[in-house]
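ENTRY TYPE: paired fold submission
RECORD: A
CONTENT: sequence, then structure tokens
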Amino acid sequence: MQVYLPIAEVSVNIFLLLGLGGLVGLLSGMFGVGGGFLLTPLLFFIGIPPAVAVATGANQIVASSFSAVLAHFKRKTVDLRMGTVLLIGGLVGASFGVALFNHLKSLGQVDLLVSLFYVIFLGIIGALMFVESLNALRKSRRGVPPKRRKHNWVHKLPFKIRFRTSGLYISVIPPLVVGLMVGVMAAIMGVGGGFIMVPAMIYLLGMPTKVVVGTSLFQIIFVAAFTTTLHAATNYTVDIVLAVLLLIGGVIGAQFGAGIGSRMKAEQLRILLAGLVLLVCAKLALELLIEPSELYSIAGA
């Protein structure tokens, strides 16, 4: 059963889109990530234009993150002050990212930019995650407790603010920089940025794990919504039909993923996620390197 996507201007099997949303929801439930960094490349693979995939992927992140952050508010595990600082950096980064996205789109280079960003970031994050997970798995088997690295230079920076929920007294500069980077990635890659923000909040800022996820989701909601609005207003690339179908599948898949993830060890989950990230990265890299099946040329008279 085919459904026509008016903004993407392609017809796609409705069950394929529901299944894709379900797969990303399953992974989100298993690994505790938004899934945008996997959803957008998967949309590339089924023929959705990169500009539409990026904008629509960001749109889906808003809905999934909003429902999740409500539970964290009830548990009082959201640091609103830290989230606001991250959000300021994120909004600035998103504005810059959308401006860069629009400029490259006018030059006809946006598809290449998005693919290169994914290959670079997924390759780096996947490799680091895989190595860290293997080391953690070996230590857990030997009964060695994991150690958290402390970055003393972070505490020497100026403009310090007390973040009471996180129990921190640090400079606002590192959170602003983290938010800025995530905002740029949200605009260009159509991701929430949680797969970079969460490790940065834990290992760089030193936030307690219990407040990291909720605070990250709080920032992601507004940055993703802002990014989606900018893309919709300037590029007209948000496909509502595509977003709704992906959301339906994602909601169903997340329920099954949460059940599966609760039965597995954290180290095993991280290794599986790292392997999946590297697999998607390799697929994108191959598509950039191999000769396309259809070649086009513009020959002058």
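RECORD: B
CONTENT: sequence, then structure tokens
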Amino acid sequence: MSNPHAPYQSLPPEGEVSSLGSGPARTDMDRSPHQSDPLRRARLRWRARRGLLENDLIFERFFSRYEHDLSDADVGALTRLLELSDNDLMDLLLARKEPEGDLADPDVKRVLDMLRTA
């Protein structure tokens, strides 16, 4: 059985030279849109891998449906959600809780709605 995440296992951290292509290393200064940069998309997918299978399944469906349509604001909101623990994230994904505090902004709520309907 093959590992569906195998293509993303050897990604270098931001700012390091990638063996996936030639040219200068990408940095945060490189402001190309998320959807036009396959390396940035792969890093986001890698970061979305979770310890709970249920979260992994939700993210796989989400990326299959929305990956190429995500705006930079969506990626920022998704990144904020990925900073949560697996259990807190699952509570939000399953609508057991709603975003509070710093997470209660329109970008996070929009991405959360996308995740819930994916």
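NOTES ON RECORD B: DSSP finds five helices and no strands in the chain. The domain at 37-117 is CATH 1.10.150.250 (DNA polymerase; domain 1).
STATUS: closed
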